[in-house]
């Protein structure tokens, strides 16, 4: 375990960063929920705060007084163990508690926790706090993707700020890295923090394979579009093709064709698409279809984990061909904490890597992110294998 | 026509009242749209302002500069004639323009109009301005019903203020007023302001009928509930019964049964239901079912108009049995103004009267309000006939 | 009341006609339900038979044995009073009872009723039998419209037979009939059979109006289409315009544009549209839009009833501007029979007249048919007024 | 390849068996489609016939005349390559072609193929024919599950026949079979017929595991129900729990609780549930929840394939924990044949084994069946692992 003063520092820094990320927002931006997958920023603030209150303060701080007895109801997410769940759809209808009140809640809980940490605490509290911090870091990423969705779907296309770079230059010339057939070990060694879904380090047998040293670029994807990629069912799964037709998909999320040029909404506002930057905001269905068109495939999560030390990664969450399943001997933790990962292990795909909005030190080579196959508001990208 | 200085006063008073109504709101309350029929307060402010800009300033003030070129898109409602319509569902996703910006818009347009009115203006402008003022008064009513919906559906049940009386005492002892058979004249005489749907004053033949001098009370409606009114299809239209079953209806909107007592959310917060106050927030389906159960019926809009001078009215919009149809020789006005009323003349019921949130001098004996048969977030009530 | 031997004859003829109408069908045609509004022919046969069994034999024939105890469940329609309703949507999933079994049911019930009628029967039975016969005549009409829908939506477009004429020649040269202002009497005099919704003969005041001596033709409607009638919201109700956009409406039901010519599916198979024949299979929304475009309007049901003796009618059910509402002093009959009409008196429009598939002697000048505003699989047409 | 006379015999036997399976049906049973996943028996007959016509006769028999030019449209399934697809939902609305006509089609195509096989044919034709035969065998299984659904959802609960045994006795006493850690080979060796999704025989590394020698029984599953298994979210995936709540799931498909006893609909009619027979008609969600409740898990498809020679199987398709994904080096075949398997490799689970309605010699240890996680009209069961 890490030293308690380091943990306290990490806690304070994490809380501070959440506030920093919200600095460019108007009060109104905290409230809306333009689609079901997006949560209002206010909710992220309340929810990460509630997590500390519910799992640490309420049970481990003597004489702790709840900030507000209804907030557990308002800011719980999917924890069935703890009372009645808020219907997700309703998050965007909550004008109250006000943003000011939520910040009061944040500061109250932060102070109570700082107070608790002034004295030595049990290993259990340390573990729960570390869990809470990583939970908050995870929500920082969602906060940024949700802010982008809220601003990027507003008819006025307001910018977030002038400095956030979402499309960093990718220096590598595309090349293939080859990995030999063999038995490899997969999963976390349990030294330092990780989630339960990374544990159960185990052997897998891999055939020889090659993986690209670089991500698919916007320019390469434009070739796919212009070759009629969205119009030919041959490249798509049956479900993917239904999705293309029903949603009338023709391009990545946030892209706009204005006259004959491609533009995209970025946190810096509307910009011309940079052909050499790595592709972003595509669904698994699109990632798969692109790979089919190119005559290649997506890597499995095991291939990615084995090969990852040989290439740069971290600007895009990378879709893999692997379904999100438990590792051998996976056991979900008892109680509410156990609901964190295990119950989502069906009908989702694993993503590996990290992104330009991932909190510092939040990802690692064994980290397993996961989303449904049609979602694309995260900073998702594609690395090919063959 | 009314004198221009009176008109200017009316304009300024109306604009001021809209701001007064919003005083108790937090910024967050302006933004949300908890259901499709409700519009965010911010939208009402922007829309009523846009109406003056679009129909008066833009065409009748020389060298007028639009406040913002995208606002027409954002704040238009159902006017197909004017550009692309905003999908109604999206109103609650608009965090921008901010509330502060919308108030800037209000003040800009108000000042521009005041400037225009400093000199003599044409009859056409006078007419359009009067139209805009009445349009705003109409939206003041919707603003209040929507604010109630937003606060009354928030899990914290915040109050609007402490003084707003929604359930005034009804002094009349219930009695029947009888009107003799005969030919009566219906509709507006076109002296003073009215909407186009009231014009075409015409004769109707009425049979002898009786109408109640008072509104159905909460207490009477509780009798209906307790007699199993929501469980017996015999009292309902087929469509009404479907609605009861699908929506699992058991009581008026805003009512809560807590232990064994009935409470309702009011603008003053949660209160015990007052049995002697007039019933509110029921749909046409419920009004009809109640009348069936009671062995009576709802009046037609013609019966109501003929009898109305013999009873007190104005706290509830009263459901009638009449479908919303054009009067003989009704002609809709050309262009966008013509979209105001005519295109809704199908599958809606006429309501007569006015309510505790109706703007002063906004209703009159010939006023025809109308809603779909399942809606109940307005201040709707019941007066029986036989 | 009519003499019992006449009644018996009428009963036998009606039953026989139902079988005759089904002659051209394959067994498979009896079973399917291609849309919610259409019932499988087998269901019409079972339902009309069940009506006699339920309301007459079961209660009025001593020692009557039900043909099959589950048939009441299978063949009931919307009678809430009598047991659990079959969800309408399920009618097309019932492969059993087989068609042969349903014909056994028909013959069993017919014979039992004939037996009952061999002796003198009470006035109540006479009334119920007359009700049952008219109920069956009504279903004969629906049977034909549903058969047309089943065949006309089959990709092989099979014909019903070679002789059924749906588009009879209309001899009248279009002209206007004028009716003077005055008080008129409306409704049935209660001499001979009628439905409860026609009773309550009462006075109405009508303004002077004109009504066309002839129906709108296919050719006239083609002019509306070609003038862009389906593309201009100005002619439509707001609900109608939503319907046009959502359902992508561009022409009457059963019409197909093949190369540059208009064709329609008829019971005789696919044919070229006859420009001089009366328009058919349009919704109220379309009827209204056409009238708007033409600068005229639809008649009210009262205007139609007053004027009808001055023109020919009976090939199309004619949409009126009147909503389907109770006449003054309308009382619905107690029990299941009372569900026949009253509970549909909301959000529907009245149609007057009759059609090429209406059973002989089934309609009359006071008959009030009614449908929702978006339906068009009936033989609906348009007569203009001004 | 198998000898041509054997192939011809196999073809004739397979065609004959399809007809035999349909013997107990009424004509009406061939037509209906009570839910989207079920196809009308008539469609299965037409579709398997069309497969031979489209892929063999049309391209490989000189001067072949299509039986009917519209049948390709009517009886195609999901083959995007070949013309416009029939919307699946519509299959149950097709009263025409009649059943008699479909049998004419069957006999015409069978005879044409027999004629073709009288002379020596190319390897390609042999391959396509074998494909067509296995395609038909697969549809024989679906035909039986769809017939069960049609009869088992009819309110009269008609039996299929008296002799079909769906719940055979399972002789084994439950015990665990243990397999050691190691590298194993998975997939088909390409000797004899198999589908493309079984090819690409490859190595996998397996940890030591145990698998049950017997299937979960009805009695064991009743324990799960009575322990509140359907009421405790802890046993379910998040998606599974949503499914339970939305669909109000409380028991396997076809089960009915009558008074205090469990019954199920079988092809022999309604019977009391036999506690010792293997559980059937449960979804993956239920299989997973049962395993969670029991403290065990489902095997992976690799574990199943490695262990299968040590236990009896073949009465139930057995849910595995494996997602349906391509084997390494999987390539889908070009053209329409390539649509058979590859495009479904997302969001489905693998089932291994076979069932009481699987055609003889149609399954094998490497056979990979697959369905969505909520489906249960197939003969699905559960074998536990740990």
From TrEMBL, chains A, B, C, D:
InterPro entries in the cross-refs: CTDL_fold, DinB-like, EgtB, Sulfatase_Mod_Factor_Kinase, SUMF_dom, SUMF_sf
Protein name: Ergothioneine biosynthesis protein EgtB
UniProt cross-references to SUPFAM superfamilies, sorted A to Z: C-type lectin-like
DinB-like domain sequence ranges: 11-142
Positions of the Sulfatase-modifying factor enzyme-like domain: 174-307
Originating species: Patiriisocius hiemis
Keyword Ligase: no
Pathway: Amino-acid biosynthesis; ergothioneine biosynthesis
Domain of life: Bacteria
UniProt entry keywords in alphabetical sequence: Iron, Oxidoreductase
């Amino acid at each position: 375990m890490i030293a308690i003063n380091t943990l306290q520092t990490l806690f304070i820094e994490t809380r501070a960063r959440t506030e920093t990320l919200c600095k460019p927002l108007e009060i109104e931006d905290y409230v809306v929920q333009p689609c079901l997958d997006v949560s209002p920023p206010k909710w992220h603030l309340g929810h990460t705060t509630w997590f500390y209150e519910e799992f640490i303060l309420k049970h481990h701080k003597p004489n702790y007084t709840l900030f507000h007895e209804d907030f557990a109801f308002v800011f719980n997410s999917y924890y069935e163990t703890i009372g009645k769940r808020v219907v997700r759809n309703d998050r965007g209808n909550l004008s109250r508690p006000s943003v000011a009140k939520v910040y009061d809640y944040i500061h109250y809980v932060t102070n109570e926790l700082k107070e608790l940490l002034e004295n030595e605490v049990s290993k259990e509290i340390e573990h729960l706090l570390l869990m809470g911090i990583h939970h908050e870091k995870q929500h920082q990423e969602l906060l940024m993707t949700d802010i982008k969705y809220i601003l990027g779907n507003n008819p006025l296309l307001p910018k977030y700020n002038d400095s956030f770079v979402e499309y960093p230059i990718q220096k590598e010339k595309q090349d293939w890295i080859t990995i030999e057939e063999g038995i490899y070990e997969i999963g976390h060694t349990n030294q330092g923090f990780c989630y339960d879904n990374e544990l159960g380090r185990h052997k897998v047998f891999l055939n020889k394979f090659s993986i690209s040293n670089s991500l698919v670029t916007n320019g390469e994807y434009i070739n796919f579009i212009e070759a009629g990629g969205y119009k030919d069912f041959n490249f798509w799964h049956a479900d993917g093709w239904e999705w293309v037709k029903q949603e009338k998909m023709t391009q990545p999320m946030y892209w706009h064709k204005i006259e004959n040029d491609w533009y995209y909404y970025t946190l810096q506002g509307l910009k011309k698409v940079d052909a050499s930057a790595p592709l972003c905001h595509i669904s698994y269905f699109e990632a798969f279809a692109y790979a089919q068109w190119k005559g290649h495939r997506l890597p499995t999560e095991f291939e990615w984990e084995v090969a990852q030390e040989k290439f740069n990664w971290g600007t895009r969450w990378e879709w893999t061909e692997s379904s999100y399943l438990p590792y051998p001997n996976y056991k979900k933790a008892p109680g509410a904490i156990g609901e964190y990962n295990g119950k989502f292990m069906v009908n989702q795909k694993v993503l590996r890597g990290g992104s330009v909005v991932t909190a510092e030190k939040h990802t690692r080579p064994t980290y397993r992110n996961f989303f449904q196959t049609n979602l694309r508001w995260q900073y998702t990208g594609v690395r090919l294998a063959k």
